[in-house]
Write a structure and sequence with these properties.
The chain has four helices and four strands. It has one domain: Nucleotidyltransferase, domain 5. The protein is α+β, with helices and mostly antiparallel strands.
Length: about 120
């Protein structure tokens, strides 16, 4: 019997490695890295030259403030807005988008579009 979850994770990792060869973040234009698990979504702005996370956001921060149940897609959009706000405070306007091997679809797309609406340029 095949372990489909393991195969899926391996394929995501392979895609992410392929993407990371082409994408590199600097202090001026950091990499907006997205990680999507089954229950949460995370976003970070990373300076690859120093190997430092400049700004980070996740839906875990929002769940503390939101008392009622919200769909995961809506939370992803809120995380996109939150990462854009934090980036503005850190005086970051341009980023390079790293979808982390995930399809540009659903929650990943929602986060990216909300970050664009929040003022980030990719």
């Amino acid at each position: 019997m095949r372990d489909y979850n393991k195969e899926k994770r391996i394929k995501i990792t392979q895609r992410h490695k392929r993407i990371r060869v082409k994408i590199h973040g600097t202090k001026e234009i950091p990499r907006l890295s997205v990680y999507r698990s089954l229950s949460h979504i995370y976003a970070q702005l990373i300076d690859d030259d120093k190997g430092v996370t400049l700004v980070g956001a996740s839906d875990l921060e929002l769940k503390k403030a939101i008392k009622h149940k919200v769909k995961k897609a809506e939370l992803a959009k809120e995380v996109g807005k939150l990462i854009a706000e934090k980036a503005k405070k850190a005086k970051i306007e341009r980023v390079v988008f790293d979808r982390g091997g995930f399809q540009y679809h659903g929650r990943v797309k929602g986060l990216a579009e909300a970050a664009r609406q929040g003022g980030l340029k990719f």
